[in-house]
User: Which sequence fits this backbone?
DNA sequence: TCCTTTATGCTCTCTCTGAGCATAATAGGC
DNA sequence: GCCTATTATGCTCAGAGAGAGCATAAAGGA
């Protein structure tokens, strides 16, 4: 008999290369034999071994090493997902699966050699989150009308208003402020409105055509984990110097800025970004300039550890969008 | 045979009454027969029922209702703790216990009728976190020398410097900024240095006399969960209007301020606090004044929901300390 | 009436942030 | 060598927000 309860460990592994935030995915043979969507990209996953894994994080590192060949550096716990039927095989008598998700950051230079794993662009799965070229047309062309329809389908006037307000706040409609950190809230709203294909046949306000524009699906609820990770990362950038976990030891300020922009999904003002990180004590010049490339050569900078003593919440800000 | 793996649900239930942040604790007969510290205050706890609990949060609510009679309102997941030997009974063949901790907030008026549970002051367990009367003497008189001793015990000069830097950053020694949110980091440092009694016989830099001044111990790693909760709550106050989950529907601005101060562990400037919440659109006057009390009567205010549309991250700030 | 206490209004300064202008230093085309 | 495109870097200005403190208002009690 299979155990009635499994504690799984999932890793959302993030790197930024070529100004694109990327996610490490694996093929998931074992995770869905005969289950619809079993061929979709999945996050590295493995069950906690209660006897062998001394801590959750060590267990995660073991699984990631085994499945991707990658030795993780920075990792933090994200969230634990435990709703019933997260894994459809539970309906067929499979164990209840509780998944503890971690966010891990990998430096730019180390994205090769991921074994049978594959780096995929974050925004292939969450295309509405990339606002670097201005507010994504997807939001106003596809999301807004679908959510409006979803709101109209509510039972009464009060529920309609609640749905409209929620859509406004999460996507910044009708003058509401768009908050880049609310990635999970946006995904969950899209899910409830039937706009992402993981929501299944219950399509509600959404047409098939609309759903198909909403990015690629992942296995199980892994797109939800991704959304959780991106939201957390965007939030954390603002008050912890995690950005330096994603770049090489030295970097030009423009490269640093592009990495922040890639994650924030927004463009930043170049001179102000420089002022923020330089005057803010986050970085210090090395005196060395990077020769290659057009234009005036840029100085290479490095992270300035002392900032941890000096400032309470050293981070970079995400811009407005 | 006992199962080899249990997923537990723990609740850190917080209320503020009489300007004191409080925690709901229970007696833990079942949780430590013959184990040292079994009589210590504990958090409400119950194992997840894989068949009965549809979501983790619903399972938590069930357990809290059963153990304390309380119907939870606001609740959010905090963190999942899964280190081996969190529960000492694991050493004696007990199951590996993974605990998913939640933070729940209870409104001031609802703290009665907690069944066999008991409200305890937060700072009875974490006395160094209350800086409302100025920097706690405990930090400079007890913590600082003990951590200095702990730093000196490090293997080499490099490790010594690392320990010193860590102590400086977490407690704001030697000119470093004190960050009220780093509650967990402080607790963990105290634990590693053997300054809290949960650390067991391995006392390292700490004398028994010092340890006894460091607040009351809790069962298992529950003080760690408390620290996680307080840190999260302090952080969240700054960018989400969670404070209104802790106060009645109407309140004077001074009462609101006292609740923030109680949680922040710091005093705030009265006029600036008023400006922050009033001009910031977080509250609106009701036109009604509260009669009782000395001094000029104060107007009653209420939370202004519209702020959620208008501002990206509406919160209150914690002051400097 | 005066004093104590709490509420409320307002100002001043400093810092941070958004925005934009201006100049510097390269490479490549001519 | 000169011109242009391109990127780097320095600087200023305006407005928002935060920290601090002064001043006035409205109660109750001596």
Assistant:
């Amino acid at each position: 008999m299979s155990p009635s309860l499994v504690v799984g460990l999932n890793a959302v592994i993030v790197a930024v290369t070529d100004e694109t935030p990327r996610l490490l995915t694996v093929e998931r043979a074992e995770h869905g034999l005969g289950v619809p969507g079993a061929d979709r990209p999945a996050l590295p996953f493995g069950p906690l071994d209660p006897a062998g894994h001394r801590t959750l994080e060590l267990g995660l590192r073991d699984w990631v090493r085994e499945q991707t060949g990658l030795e993780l550096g920075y990792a933090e716990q994200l969230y634990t997902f435990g709703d019933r039927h997260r894994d459809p095989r539970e309906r067929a008598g499979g164990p209840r699966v509780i998944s503890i998700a971690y966010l891990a950051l990998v430096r730019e230079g180390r994205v090769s050699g991921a074994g049978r794993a594959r780096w995929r662009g974050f925004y292939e799965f969450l295309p509405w989150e990339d606002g670097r070229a201005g507010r994504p047309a997807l939001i106003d062309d596809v999301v807004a009308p679908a959510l409006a329809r979803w709101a109209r389908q509510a039972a009464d006037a009060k529920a309609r208003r609640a749905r409209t307000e929620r859509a406004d706040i999460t996507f910044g409609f009708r003058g509401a402020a768009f908050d880049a950190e609310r990635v999970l809230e946006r995904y969950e709203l899209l899910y409830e409105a039937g706009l992402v294909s993981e929501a299944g046949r219950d399509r509600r306000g959404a047409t098939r055509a609309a759903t198909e524009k909403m990015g690629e699906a992942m296995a199980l609820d892994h797109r939800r984990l991704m959304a959780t990770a991106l939201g957390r990362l965007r939030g954390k950038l603002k008050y912890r110097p995690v950005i330096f976990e994603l770049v090489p030891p030295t970097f030009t300020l423009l490269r640093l800025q592009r990495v922040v922009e890639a994650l924030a999904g927004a463009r930043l003002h170049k001179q102000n970004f420089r002022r923020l990180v330089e005057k803010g004590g986050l970085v210090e010049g090395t005196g060395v300039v990077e020769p290659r490339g057009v234009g005036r050569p840029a100085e290479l900078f490095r992270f300035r550890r002392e900032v941890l003593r000096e400032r309470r919440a050293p981070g970079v800000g995400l811009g407005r969008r």
Observations:
- Chain A has three domains: 5-126+219-235, 128-212, 240-310.
- Chain A touches chain B through 35 residues (CB under 8 Å).
- Residues 252-254, 270-271, 274-275, 293-299 of chain A lie near DNA strand D (CB under 10 Å from a C1').
- The beta strands of chain A are 5-17, 20-25, 45-47, 74-81, 96-105, 118-121, 250-251, 283-290, 298-303.
